[in-house]
Each structure stands twice: as structure tokens, then as C-alpha cells.
Automatic annotation (TrEMBL):
Source lineage: Eukaryota, Metazoa, Chordata, Craniata, Vertebrata
InterPro entries reported for this sequence: Serpin_CS, Serpin_dom, Serpin_fam, Serpin_sf, Serpin_sf_1, Serpin_sf_2
Stretch forming the signal peptide: 1-22
Name assigned to this protein: Corticosteroid-binding globulin
Functional description taken from the UniProt entry: Major transport protein for glucocorticoids and progestins in the blood of almost all vertebrate species.
Organism: Odocoileus virginianus
């Protein structure tokens, strides 16, 4: 039965290409929704993993698809036995006295099913905003990587009413934009030099607080048109996160093979996203300026920022990124 392990590994290495889609599955929001049960654990796992990666590469871009990683590891745990299995599930943030292994796997199977069926990734790389950016307004601008480095980026523009917050708790401003499908995107701009304190504070509670505090207002929004990608061997990080057996000789994947103990040699993960102007509704580049109206707020993502993409329906963490240098 060795092929099962290979499948899992292949999946791990390509998992960033898959995302969640809630549409058309015939599930009523009010009915019990197995994949939503995973949201709290998966979001906690997402931020823990993200913070480990940020800490291990100071000054570097980070880009992952957390829900793909947790789903892949949960599938892998099916082939694991005994303590290794427990360790994997606990490392993913599950408390096995609160949720049985069977329940966890049932929930992940449902999620996996949605992943396989979905074609969201293509849509996402095509950058379908609910409100598009103005194609003709994109122009080259400076992006301030750090004190000493400035790079040129194509800067997109739209003037629109969006969900905006100047956070009074954390040193950052943010906007929440809708993508086609059920994806929602947070662009978080920390105050210069305050990236670390914002990342440290990222959590389920912070996202919930932001969701409640965002208000609709007119914003002149400037966001770089970029391709973001990340490729990682997560083996070492998994050890740091308490899933040490995954790569050690003690790993028991007897569920997969009866032969000599196989070893998971690498946990590969890749994720990619292209951000561009295209959207469902045409941009409205012409601003009607009423003399009495206050100048709209200008928000320029021209220094390191955070991007987070969630599936609005399942609250799965599709992508988490830290963009330090977009070129
Ligand atoms: C797991 O949940 C049980 C019951 O809610 C609780 O008593 C226990 O402390 C939890 N274990 C961990 C490791 O959080
Ligand atoms: C996925 O989307 C692409 C581009 O929109 C389309 O060509 C392709 O047929 C779709 N695949 C499936 C399985 O729906
Ligand atoms: C600024 O960024 C450049 C390019 O990424 C890097 O080579 C340099 O070491 C950074 N400088 C500081 C002070 O972090
Ligand atoms: C955001 O709030 C801080 C104080 O909390 C203030 O100094 C800053 O000017 C505000 N920024 C904007 C764009 O309103
Ligand atoms: C978004 O989710 C809702 C359920 O909340 C569903 O009815 C709708 O079809 C989904 N839309 C898309 C485009 O996936
Ligand atoms: C795993 O086994 C190999 C050879 O059997 C050995 O060289 C290596 O040191 C072992 N690693 C650990 C972490 O025990």
C-alpha cells in the first residue's frame, strides 16, 4: 500500500493549488456543516504556522495556503498509527477529547471533496475582484522595502467605497475587499516598522474584532499588481510545532505499509497567487467631486504589508502572505 503515502506527498507538494469553495454543494447555512467545524482549529493552525515561517525568515516574503497544509497533514494522519497519529492531529490543533479522530477525518474528507471539485484557483489567479481596479490608472511607483531599498512596482488604483479600518489597538490600517466566489481578502498595512507587532497579534480574535470594526468609507486605494508565491519544505517547522515524529525514524505509518518503516523525507508546499486589476464590475475611475465632500482617504500599499484570503463561507484560511519585497 505504499502508493498511498506517495499520493499524500504529491498532494503536499501541490496542495497550494487547491482552495476551498462553498458554492453549489447544496448545503444550507443553517444545517450542520462538517467543514465549518474545522474553522477554529484550522485558523489557529494557520496563524501558528505563519508566525513560525515569518520568524524563520526575517525580512523575507512569506506565502502559504494553510488550509491545504492542514488538510494534507490530516489525510496523512490516516496512514499513521499510535502516537504519531495523535501527535499529527494535536499538532494541527485538535483536542482529541473534544473531537474524535473519526469526526476530524470525516470533516477533512468533506473539505477535501470540495477542494477537488473546485476550480477556484484559476479564478483567483485571474484576479476577479468584485470591484475591479481601473486598468488605465495602473502606473509605476516606488515601493519602500526597508530603510535602504526602494523598488518599482506597477501600482493599481481604485477609488471606491470599501470596508476600512484605522485600528486603534494595533498599529495598522486595513481594507477588506471581496473577490468573486466567496473569497474575502484583507490587505493590512502596518505602520512603518511595526510589521512584527501586527503579525504577533494576528489571531482568530483579531480577525473577528476587525470584521466587526471595519466601516464602509470612500478610499483611494493603491495596491501593487504582483505575483506572490512561496515554496517550502515544512519538515523542520513541523518539528517546532510539535509534530516531530513526522520526519524522525520513529514514524509509524503502518497504516500505509507493512514493510520496513517508511520515512516521510520532506513536507513540500507551494502556493501562488496573482493580484491584478480584473474584476466583475468595471472600475469607476471618474470620481464625482462634490465641493462639499471631504477628500477621500488615500491608502497606499507601498511598504511591506500582509495579505490574508479567507473563504467567507467556511472561514478557511486559503492564503496567508507577508509581502516585504514584491519584485
Ligand atoms: C482537551 O479538552 C478537555 C475537555 O474540554 C480539557 O479538559 C483538556 O484540558 C483539553 N486538553 C488540552 C491539551 O487542551
Ligand atoms: C476551470 O476554469 C478554466 C478557466 O476558466 C476552464 O477553462 C476549465 O474548463 C475549468 N475546469 C473545470 C473542471 O471546470
Ligand atoms: C533591505 O532589503 C534589501 C533587499 O531585500 C536587503 O538586501 C537589505 O539587507 C535590507 N536592509 C535592511 C537594513 O534590512
Ligand atoms: C490612524 O489613527 C492614528 C491614531 O490612532 C492617527 O495618528 C493616524 O493619523 C490615523 N490615520 C489615518 C489615515 O486616519
Ligand atoms: C457563496 O456562498 C453562498 C452560500 O453562502 C452560495 O449560495 C453561493 O453560490 C456562493 N457563491 C459563489 C460564487 O461561490
Ligand atoms: C535515522 O536512521 C538513520 C539510519 O537508519 C540514521 O543514520 C539517523 O541518524 C537516524 N535519525 C534519527 C533522527 O534518529
Amino acid at each position: 500500500m505504499l502508493p498511498t503515502l506517495c499520493t499524500c506527498l504529491l498532494w503536499l507538494s501541490t496542495s497550494g493549488l487547491w482552495t476551498v469553495q462553498a458554492k453549489g454543494s447544496g448545503t444550507d447555512v443553517s444545517t450542520r456543516n462538517p467543514h465549518r467545524d474545522l474553522a477554529p482549529n484550522n485558523v489557529d493552525f494557520a496563524f501558528t504556522l505563519y508566525k513560525h515561517l515569518v520568524a524563520s525568515g526575517p525580512g523575507k516574503n512569506v506565502f502559504i495556503s494553510p488550509v491545504s497544509i492542514s488538510t494534507a497533514l490530516a489525510m496523512l494522519s490516516l496512514g499513521a498509527r499510535g502516537y504519531t497519529r495523535e501527535q499529527l492531529l494535536q499538532g494541527l490543533g485538535f483536542n482529541l477529547t473534544e473531537m474524535s479522530e473519526a469526526e476530524i477525518h470525516r470533516a477533512f474528507r468533506h473539505l477535501h471533496h470540495l477542494l477537488r471539485e473546485s476550480n477556484t484557483t484559476l479564478e483567483m489567479t485571474m484576479g476577479m475582484w468584485a470591484h475591479s481596479f481601473d486598468l488605465e490608472s495602473t502606473r509605476e511607483e516606488n515601493f519602500y522595502v526597508n530603510e535602504t531599498t526602494t523598488v518599482k512596482v506597477p501600482m493599481m488604483f481604485q477609488s471606491n467605497t470599501v470596508k476600512y479600518l484605522n485600528d486603534s489597538v494595533l498599529p495598522c490600517q486595513l481594507v477588506q475587499l471581496d473577490y468573486t466566489g466567496n473569497e474575502t481578502v484583507f490587505f493590512v498595512l502596518p505602520v512603518k516598522g511595526k510589521m512584527d507587532s501586527v503579525i504577533t497579534a494576528l489571531s482568530r480574535d483579531t480577525i473577528q474584532r476587525w470584521s466587526k470594526s471595519l466601516t464602509i468609507r470612500q478610499v483611494d486605494l493603491y495596491i501593487p499588481k504582483i505575483s506572490i508565491s512561496g515554496a517550502y519544505d515544512l519538515g523542520g517547522i513541523m518539528g517546532d510545532m510539535g509534530i516531530a515524529d513526522l520526519l524522525s525514524n520513529r514514524t509509524h505509518f503502518s497504516g500505509i505499509t507493512q514493510e520496513a518503516l517508511p520515512k516521510v523525507s520532506k513536507v513540500l508546499h507551494k502556493a501562488a497567487l496573482q493580484v491584478d486589476e480584473k474584476g466583475l464590475e468595471a472600475a469607476a475611475p471618474t470620481r464625482v467631486s462634490l465641493s462639499a465632500a471631504p477628500e477621500p482617504l488615500a491608502l497606499r500599499f507601498n511598504r511591506p504589508f500582509i495579505i490574508m484570503i479567507f473563504d467567507d463561507f467556511t472561514w478557511s484560511s486559503l492564503f496567508l502572505g507577508k509581502v516585504v519585497n514584491p519584485t
